[in-house]
Design a protein that fits this description.
Layout (H helix, E strand, L loop, with lengths): L1 H8 L6 E2 H8 L5 H19 L4 E4 L2 E4 L8
Antiparallel strand pairs: 1-3, 2-3
Helix pairs in contact: 2-3
């Protein structure tokens, strides 16, 4: 979840498509395993930040800019 937090923080309010996140965090995993790992990481991040801390819009995932401020 920490690596996902850093990755999403670096991409601002636009975030990334789920398919873009997979090779960053799980480059050597099969797509289905990487997608399952992403779901687990998102669950952990939502538990840490609160459900509304992570915004999922369609296929894109981003940190909620209203709740998370990055310098």
């Amino acid at each position: 979840a920490q690596a996902l937090l850093v990755l999403l923080a670096g991409h601002g309010r636009d975030g990334l498509a789920r398919e873009e996140i997979l090779p960053y965090l799980w480059p050597e995993s099969r797509r289905d395993r990487a997608a399952a790992s992403l779901r687990q990481a998102l669950t952990g991040l939502r538990q840490a930040l609160g459900v509304s801390g992570v915004a999922a819009r369609g296929t894109r995932v981003a940190l909620d800019g209203a709740l998370v401020d990055v310098d």
